[in-house]
Design goal:
The chain has about 1150 residues and is mainly beta. It contains 4 helices and 88 strands. Strand 4 and strand 5 form a beta hairpin. The N terminus is likely disordered.
């Protein structure tokens, strides 16, 4: 584009900006997304990166998610969510053979067929940004549906901490190369290599070689000590439209980079001012926002003071910042952006994970904030976001994996048309990475480029084109990396097509489906008929199916049992394996379809998890069972109950208040509240993040660490206790944190890395006279002053692991106090005889107390979730701490020793419901009980938690809370009316597991309340679920008639107890009737009736009829009737009371 045209674009967007001021952005009123997390079965992890790809070739996109928990290095779960095709996902991580590194997983998991064998392999970044969590990374080679880590064997030998990665075919030789970005936060372990990024060239024989120097030494971007110059969001795309993949690298706190591929095997730095944009770039989103067929960039800034620029590609290496005129001037502190046509109107919309925002492109380049009606809005933020058509309805769905704020959100759709394009490279790489697809429909031109990831995340690699009201694509042009150009014409809309390189033809793609699936549940020890049928999809029109087999090896059967061909291309299996040898648990059933194609052999695999139910319930306490479980009871009060995270409570000198830090207002601020949790007040209200408050001995001031203006490292601030007069005490280069007042109020101790590594310093209360107290080569953190002012406890890594040390200020001697890793928080008892600290020495963060002179520590909390950030009350009777046992970080108070008013006796013999012993509880205040197994308990196959409760001598007004907790989910029995304190007899309580949303083994069953008096618990047990009344789960059942314009999905959960979800979709506006019928054909409940717009609808049913009466257990039918009644779809559900 020449300079005259460039100036015309500037003028055009100036006009657009003026017009945007007049727009109200009314848009439609229909909610765009509906959350389906609960019914999907997906467990949200604290993920830093997510990738979508169809690893088993069944036509349904699957999801990989790995965990990066900043607060817990031991939480390193990974999940491979297999898409079952009915908005249900199963974690099939067991198909990864061998060990998975027990380290945090970084961003940059990416699917890619590196060996061009027709199935997706997976690169997994290990370490994230912490040097201590360094690799090696993983390269999971796909071997017909099972994965093997071959990273070291193929030459990926780097052992740094990796946080970003992308695939690209840099030399267009048909083999995808790999670029990884490495980080180095924290102290470098011995032998850690020079921190740098690495470019791995694919040798074409299944191995890789480090080619960073020859591709361009500038690509190394050396990083150390959290400078974050190693690249965050990054992408390889053809930005100058010359057919070669270029490289954009977003960099945190440093200039971004754009490297153009010179076509000779090197990358040349052509960074412009608009691209560099010195700031806090976290992620990148790429797309053609103005439909001029070149790639534009959205650079997200994870910083409250830095905007996230949208730069328009003007051609010839020129970019124009159009953030303000396009309506995005107020988009700050953004993480996890994505560009995609979410409403299928033919232009690229913008969606973000942090905050959860949605901006729809109006078609003239202006972005309209539609967050309110998006259906994804949250009060908290996430990190990662991917787009994919998860239910194959032609609309992009959204998955935000980050716990606790994320979720799976299904696009409700509309009447717009669409086309989806899948590519298969022949001379080019098999995935078509680097291919550019241009769709022309009338005057509308759209471009999609097949990308190898975006650094942190990878969207579904399928070209998605919204067509608005157009019903055909006039011309589809594919420019392959090899140089081949294919052109297709006159393609009908509303289908997914597959295009093979060089054949200049396409065919419609349908998924492989179960016609009759295995049953969801089997009863242990019984005979079950596995009547299974599948309808395979052909990889290409001339393919021939050579073999279809079932793998029953996990059930004790054969691994290759043939299925026979029946009518209509359906393959069937009829077998009756006896499962009496199987124990309660989950087993996977596989069906493999083998085909011969013009490219050679091709395979597809279907899989389904069968749950073997226990024959009877299991007793956990009282009556029978429970030998491996233990009761813990404590005088404990939950102080805060807010969706935000509340951390580190510092007691006021008189013990009546807390200072703490919280993100309940969006960023981290210092709050003060009464010690009972009432009257919270925000003291800081600044744009930066504030942490670690410490109250002065006279109660008039609070010291804390802050990035007050967000333009410098953390400094030590002091503020008046009412929030007035903040003062920066340190104002030096380096990070200053974790302040602690001296008992006489004249000095403040803190840790700082101003000398290169972290040391303990002390300054006068006005910030003068800084003195280095430790002066050690290893890191020292988190000082805590003894009550007599003569000693300071701190955490140090001078002998490897973090331990508690005590510095004698008079002699300078340092004594090691603990032996077993501790976290950076400790507090002295008021008499100076003991120190409370947190440690994961038992495998999980718990609170311990140790004598100030050393000895064996005493564990004072007992819970599988994390307890941390301790503080001893001024009177010595209580300890405050933060815990995520409620599913969120809240503050708690624990009464110590003789001050505890809670006693438990698990061998009560007088008041008993079953057997000879019950649990007696005598409480004088708030209490917390925990019933814990020695190892996590697999609850699979159980449906209900049941126990007996006796109110003892409690009065009807004895308290306001009696809650049961499992894995952070609460059921308040008093609020729900499940118990009655005035009824002085045993009451049986049953809680369906649905209410706990369980997706992981049980590590504790907790009870909490505020009763004063005595009560009893007995006969705690898990009640087994009942198997489906039919041995075959028929997932597809359609009434013959006109072609369906609607779809009705299987309800979830099924069977169900208290509630179930039914979802249906309308492709066009219609009159609908959704109703429940009994097996006699009588209508018992009308769920939805009347005119509805096109889209996806979710109906939740509580099992009651039209009169509000609870229906009895049994099989029911639910029927969707559309239009004049000729279009009908019916499914079965099972209600279990």
């Amino acid at each position: 584009m020449n300079s005259a045209i460039f100036r015309s674009w500037v003028g055009r967007y100036h006009i657009a900006f003026c017009v945007s001021l007049l727009l109200t952005g009314a848009g439609g009123t229909q909610t765009i997304f509906t959350e389906a997390t609960e019914e999907s079965g997906i467990l949200l992890l604290k993920s830093r990166g997510t990738a979508v790809g169809d690893y088993d070739n069944d036509g349904w996109p699957d999801i990989w998610s790995g965990e990066f928990d900043e607060a817990n290095e031991n939480r390193v779960r990974v999940a491979l969510w297999h898409n079952q095709g009915n908005v249900r996902f199963e974690n099939q991580i067991s198909i990864v053979r061998g060990d998975i590194p027990q380290r945090r997983k970084g961003g940059g998991p990416i699917w890619g067929d590196y060996d061009n064998d027709g199935d997706l392999d997976l690169f997994v970044a290990v370490g994230g940004f912490w040097a201590a969590d360094r690799g090696p990374n993983m390269l999971l080679r796909n071997d017909a549906g099972f994965f093997t880590d071959v990273a070291l064997a193929v030459g990926l030998t780097d052992v740094q901490a990796t946080d970003n990665a992308i695939w690209l075919d840099s030399d267009r030789d048909g083999d995808i190369d790999l670029y990884v970005a490495n980080m180095a936060c924290g102290s470098l372990p011995p032998g850690y290599p020079e921190p740098r990024n690495i470019f791995y060239r694919n040798n074409g024989d299944g191995t890789f070689a480090d080619a960073t120097e020859e591709m361009g030494p500038e690509l190394k971007l050396a990083d150390h000590n959290c400078i974050f110059e190693a690249a965050h969001g990054m992408v390889a795309g053809d930005f100058d439209d010359d057919g070669w993949p270029d490289l954009y690298l977003g960099v945190w706190k440093n200039p971004n980079y754009l490297f153009l591929n010179d076509g000779q095997g090197r990358f040349i730095d052509v960074t412009t001012r608009e691209i560099a944009d010195l700031g806090y770039t976290q992620d990148v989103a790429v797309g053609d926002i103005d439909n001029d067929t070149d790639l534009d960039l959205f650079q997200s800034s994870a910083h409250v003071l830095w905007r996230s620029p949208l730069v328009l590609n003007m051609g010839e290496g020129q970019f124009l910042d159009v953030t303000d005129p396009l309506g995005l001037s107020k988009v700050y502190h953004v993480v996890g952006p994505a560009l995609g046509d979410l409403d299928n109107d033919g232009d690229q919309d913008l969606i973000t994970a942090a905050p959860h925002n949605l901006f729809l492109n109006n078609g003239d380049g202006i972005y309209d904030d539609q967050t309110e009606r998006s259906g994804i809005a949250r009060s908290c933020s996430s990190h990662s976001l991917v787009l994919a058509d998860l239910n194959l309805d032609g609309f992009l769905d959204c998955f935000i994996p980050r716990s606790p704020c994320g979720g799976l959100f299904l696009n409700n759709g509309n009447e717009n048309h669409w086309l989806r394009v899948e590519l298969v490279g022949i001379k080019s790489n098999r995935d078509g990475i680097g291919a550019r697809v241009i769709a022309v429909t009338g005057d509308l031109r759209q471009r999609q480029e097949f990308l190898g990831g975006l650094g942190f995340d990878q969207h579904e690699r399928v070209g998605h084109f919204g067509l608005g009201k157009h019903t055909r694509v006039d011309r589809l042009e594919i420019r392959w990396p090899s140089g081949q150009v294919d052109a297709l014409t006159d393609i009908p809309a509303d289908q997914k097509i597959r295009v093979f390189e060089g054949r200049e033809e396409y065919h419609a793609v349908t998924p492989t489906v179960w016609v009759s699936a295995p049953p969801d549940t089997l009863l242990g020890g019984s005979m079950v008929d596995l009547k299974v049928a599948v309808r395979p999809a052909l990889f290409e029109p001339d393919a021939t199916i050579t073999r279809v087999t079932a793998d029953l090896s996990e059930l004790g059967g054969p691994a290759d049992l043939p299925l026979r061909l029946d009518e209509g291309g359906v393959y069937r299996l009829e077998s009756s394996p006896e499962i009496d040898a199987l124990q309660q648990g989950s087993y996977t059933f596989f069906v493999k379809i083998e085909q011969n194609t013009f490219l050679g052999d091709h395979w597809i695999q279907l899989s389904r998890t069968l749950v073997v139910l226990p024959v009877e319930s299991v007793g956990l306490f009282g009556g029978a069972g429970g030998e491996n479980w233990t009761w813990h009871g404590q005088d404990m009060m939950r102080v805060t109950d807010h969706p935000g995270a509340d951390i580190v409570a510092s007691w006021s000198p008189d013990g009546t208040k807390f200072a703490f830090f919280t993100d309940r207002d969006g960023n981290w601020e210092i709050y003060v509240m009464d010690a009972d949790g009432s009257h919270p007040v925000n003291l800081t209200r600044d744009p930066g993040n504030d942490f670690w408050p410490s109250w002065s001995p006279d109660g008039t001031k609070i010291a804390f660490m802050s990035k007050w203006d967000n333009d410098h490292d953390f400094e030590i601030y002091v503020i008046d206790a009412d929030g007035s007069y903040p003062v920066n005490l340190t104002m030096t280069e380096g990070k200053d944190d974790t302040p602690s007042w001296s008992p006489d109020g004249t000095k403040i101790a803190f840790s700082t890395n101003r000398d290169g590594n972290f040391e303990i310093y002390v300054v006068d209360a006005d910030g003068s006279h800084p003195v280095n107290l430790t002066n050690n080569d290893d890191d020292d953190f988190s000082p805590s002053w003894s009550p007599d002012g003569k000693r300071i406890a701190f955490q140090s890594f001078r002998e490897g692991d973090g331990e508690v040390y005590v510095l004698d200020l008079e002699t300078g001697n340092v004594a090691k106090l603990t032996h077993g890793w501790v976290a950076p928080a400790s507090s002295w008892s008021p008499d100076g005889s003991r120190i409370v600290f947190e440690s994961d020495r038992s495998g999980n963060l718990e609170i311990y107390v140790i004598d100030a002179d050393g000895g064996d520590p005493n564990k004072i909390t007992h819970h599988p979730e994390r307890d941390m950030n301790v503080g001893w009350s001024p009177d010595g009777s209580r300890i405050s701490f933060a815990s995520d046992r409620t599913g969120n970080w809240d503050l708690f108070i624990l009464h110590m020793g003789d001050t505890s008013q809670v006693e438990i006796d698990p061998q009560e013999r007088e008041t008993v419901f079953a057997g000879s012993e019950a649990l007696a509880v005598r409480a004088g205040s708030d209490w917390w009980l925990s019933w814990q197994p020695t190892a996590p308990f697999d609850w699979t196959g159980y449906a209900v938690l049941r126990f007996a409760f006796h109110p003892g001598d409690l009065s009807a007004s004895a308290g306001e809370e009696f809650s049961v907790w499992i894995r952070g989910k609460e059921v308040d029995l008093l609020r729900e009316g499940r118990i009655d304190l005035s009824v002085k007899e045993w009451q049986v309580v049953e809680i369906p597991f649905e209410q706990f949303e369980l997706k992981e083994p049980i590590e504790a069953i907790d009870f909490s309340g505020d009763f004063t008096g005595s009560f009893y618990i007995d006969d705690l047990r898990l009640v087994s679920a009942k198997p489906s009344s039919e041995s075959t789960a028929v997932l597809e059942e359609h009434v013959a008639g006109l072609p369906l314009t609607s779809t009705l999905e299987q309800n979830y959960p099924n069977p169900f107890n208290s509630a179930t979800v039914i979802r249906f979709a309308l492709l066009t506006a219609a009159n609908v009737d959704l109703a429940i019928f009994n097996l006699a054909g009588q209508r018992v409940a009308t769920l939805t009736q009347g005119d509805r717009e096109a889209g996806t609808y979710t109906v939740r049913w509580d099992g009651r009829d039209d009169s509000g009466r609870a229906l009895p257990s049994g099989v029911y039918l639910y029927r969707l009737q559309v239009g004049n009644g000729q279009e009908v779809e019916t499914r079965k559900l099972l209600l279990l009371r």
